[in-house]
């Protein structure tokens, strides 16, 4: 398909290059058309690089005929405007054509037009915007979003641009991981001492659940094997298996891996378990203290590394305190991984329990991707994009 991606001035424009990449990766030809204000949020070189074509932004530059809006319209099968500001929605509803993108949009009659609104929730709720949206809908223009959630202005409500993966799905019905199956391990493991006690750790499972959601949003069927956690799964493409101990996780993961295209092991697996588990509650043993003998658990990641077949991808996590990068790189080699995600414990806001994280993704070829401190959801999307591309 030949798709024009229109971009207007809103903070969500920083996500538009990801949308363009998804469409190009899915085999579509893409040209970008931006308003001047859009270029305050995303740069011309970025859009030209991801689309591999010059950007259309000015009515009076381009092919010299001053009719590029008409030749672009003739070339395209459809246009998707992401983000679509209140301003562009209002202009189209009122028939105003005072720049390249609005002129192009008025010329698009007979072609599919999709708008992905993004604005503050009060602007979205304004009667003028609602009236304009209703007008556009009555003409057959499609609206994708806006979604609920946190907004750049610091409030939350309806107004977020829908994520690029969902826009791509709405626009052309293909997601980058459609037809792929991925395995994710998440959460802690509990290693039983007796009928009422266990050895565990502080892992909340948030990172693993966010990874499962990011993979599902990208179209994959996800096998989520999770240790004990209160978290709920949100997506119909996520199939959940609950386990308690490292050995149960091992059995589930090794059973599922052969039918998967890849696996991301983010679980905090206990390296050791009590050598014996009493089937009753152990009694206190007095002043001399108590010793619990531990034996090693199987290494699930290393086992999958040994099982890995041509075409399968394997991603592990590493939590290091000294020589972080060097140790992570060694772990990647030793366990036969394609990527390793190095968790930072040095940064405030990263690690167990919190909603944010900061990571370095190290690839087998030695390349590094450093993330800023982001929400675990955004880190998950970054990891999924990096390890599946
Ligand atoms: N892992 C696993 N099975 C285990 C232990 C760890 O699958 N029994 C996986 C984790 O899910 C993670 C990775 O291995 O993806 C790294 O775990 P980590 O504890 O950092 O490393 P170890 O290999 O245990 O090495 P060390 O503790 O010596 O650093």
Describe the structure.
This protein is of the alpha/beta class and 389 residues long. 32% of the residues lie in helices and 23% in strands. It has 13 helices and 21 strands. The chain has helices at residues 16-25, 44-51, 68-75, 86-94, 100-107, 121-125, 127-138, 164-172, 206-217, 246-256, 300-307, 324-334, 376-388, and strands spanning 2-7, 29-34, 78-84, 112-117, 142-143, 147-150, 156-160, 181-186, 191-192, 198-199, 221-226, 238-242, 262-265, 272-274, 294-296, 313-319, 339-343, 356-357, 359-363, 368-370, 374-375. The strands form six sheets. The protein has an eight-stranded mixed β-sheet with strand order 12-11-8-13-16-17-19-20, with helices on both faces. The chain has a five-stranded parallel β-sheet with strand order 2-1-3-4-5, with helices on both faces. Strand 1 (2-7), helix 1 (16-25) and strand 2 (29-34) form a beta-alpha-beta unit. Helix 1 runs parallel beside helix 2, helix 1 (16-25) packs across helix 8 and helix 4 crosses helix 7. The structure holds cytidine-5'-triphosphate (CTP). Cytidine-5'-triphosphate binds at residues 185, 246, 265, 267, 269, 271, 297, 299-301, 316-319, 331.
Low-confidence stretches: none
Neighbour order of strands in the largest sheet: 12-11-8-13-16-17-19-20
Question: What are the bound molecules?
Answer: cytidine-5'-triphosphate
User: Approximately how much beta-strand content do the residues carry?
Assistant: 15-25%
Note the overall shape: elongated
What is the end-to-end distance? 21 Å
Main pleated sheet: 8 strands, mixed
Overall pLDDT confidence: 91
> How many individual helices?
13
